[in-house]
Amino acid sequence: KKAVIGVTGLATMGRNLARNLARHGHAVAVHNRTPARTKALVTEYGHEGVFLPAETPEEFVRSLERPRRIVIMVKAGAATDAVIQEFAPLLEPGDMIVDGGNAHFEDTRRRERELRERGIHFVGTGISGGEEGALNGPSIMPGGSPESYEALGPLLESIAAKVEGVPCCTHVGPDGAGHFVKMVHNGIEYADMQLIAEAYDLLRHGLGMPPAEIAEVFRSWNNGRLESYLIEITAEVLAHTDPATGRPFVDVVVDQAEQKGTGRWTVQTALDLGVPVSGIAEAVFARSLSGSPRLREAARRLPGPSRFKLEQRFADDVEQALYASKIVAYAQGFNQIQAASDEYGWGIDLGAMATIWRGGCIIRARFLDRIRAAYAADPRTPTLLTDDHFAGALGDAQDSWRTVVSISAQLGIPTPGFATALAYYDALRAERLPAALTQAQRDFFGAHTYRRVDREGSFHTRWELPDRPEVGA
Ligand code: NDP
């Protein structure tokens, strides 16, 4: 008997993905550079389904039915290239390599191009949901050719998370599209987590609430429009008491947030595309700042504000600010996907992305249904902010949002996520931006020219001449 699909790379993710496939009745070939992992998988979980263990790449490839489907789940970067080098010569035209690691989408574009020349389909696939998702149903974002999706789609959809019976898996677009969307998903996750952290900080240090009480507030928020996996786990973390010290668990964790790099990639790419994703950028910077102990130690002696009392209803204002800022952060991320889709000709269906993020992944939330509805109503909307539901929510939230941002400044509690989201909202809706002055300065020192509000064409003012004549350029 041959396997319908194979998984190579059997660390946490690969092992769980192979088990997920086997549990769904698919015969899976399994391989790992170090054979001990393969043996361990079959010994521990062999009873869950049909596993065909292979010690060598040759044996692995032989055990697969054709066209072959191989999922690579190894460390992203050089390891992925090494594994491709090893397997590609053993494959034939029409075979498919699925890279389920967290690859940079530019690497995926390059690998897809190189393998296409050899007739092999390379399917860069974002897989979200971590260890648990890989086993019980992740959100899956495959790129690559439409033909490869025909052969892989049913398999991948069978193991993906389901929401209301709809699998959290769809063909995202050609070459790097799947990994790009996964990257922005992670960037949005950074922004969402930062906003939640700011809300916590305001309740804790603004209102002076203890973590256990804040957990209750988050629990109540999770019964409303903010319902999401991240709000749910936030309540769990805040309610947890450290068994060793009896202190709130959150207080015994070092306040330095680490990062593996997908948030940074999102921002770097957004800079190249010229898409303002300020919410994601602030979230990445906030983690960098937290991880700069020398800088923070040195700055600790700077004076803060004198204290003032807040009313309890401030918590409701924080909920409004959190929801409004979340709308902005997601709108920015979706704009980045739209821009890349235009730039690379991917034809990504933004509503479908919201649909496949509803389950399996870290940012799963009721909210994504709203985004799906917004794109259904207007697939080419320039921004989610103007969708009727979101515009209404922003309008209702804005007074509270402004209160929260100004009060946090007065309290000396940093809320870069809330503040940048509000600044973005106000900048987008501004009748006139001071960018006019910026452009005028550019013309002054660099003769970069400007356009006029009242006439077509581009112009330059001879700033160096006493009467500053304007010339058409
Ligand atoms: P790791 O990223 O820790 O990678 C370990 C695996 O890579 C092992 O199977 C290892 O083999 C293999 N490997 C490393 N270098 C080579 C090489 N040169 N040649 C062959 N194999 C090599 O494993 P994870 O399971 O954590 O993640 C797998 C992929 O999934 C990564 O790209 C990760 O970014 C991505 N991912 C991870 C998530 C998570 O929550 N962990 C979530 C979503 C995606 P050996 O046993 O022989 O050392």
Topology:
Elements: E1 5-8, H1 12-23, E2 28-31, H2 35-45, E3 51-53, H3 57-62, E4 69-72, H4 78-87, E5 96-99, H5 105-116, E6 121-128, H6 130-136, E7 139-142, H7 146-159, E8 162-163, E9 166-167, H8 177-206, H9 211-221, H10 229-239, H11 249-252, H12 262-273, H13 278-290, H14 293-299, H15 314-344, H16 350-356, H17 367-377, H18 388-411, H19 416-429, H20 435-446, E10 459-461, E11 470-472
Parallel strand pairs: 1-2, 1-4, 2-3, 4-5, 5-6
Antiparallel strand pairs: 6-7, 8-9, 10-11
Helix pairs in contact: 1-6, 8-12, 8-13, 8-15, 9-10, 12-13, 13-19, 15-18, 15-19, 16-17
The structure holds NADPH dihydro-nicotinamide-adenine-dinucleotide phosphate.
Instruction: Tell the overall outline.
Output: globular
Count of runs of 4 or more consecutive helical residues: 20
Unreliable parts: none
- Most strands sheet: 7 strands, mixed
- Could you tell me the strand content as a percent range? 5-15%
Radius of gyration from the alpha-carbon trace, in angstroms: 25 Å
Average residue-wise pLDDT: 96
User: Bound small molecules, which ones?
Assistant: NADPH dihydro-nicotinamide-adenine-dinucleotide phosphate
Distance between the termini: 74 Å
Strand order of the largest sheet: 3-2-1-4-5-6-7
Number of strands: 11
Proportion in helices: 40-55%
Class computed from helices, strands and strand pairing: alpha/beta
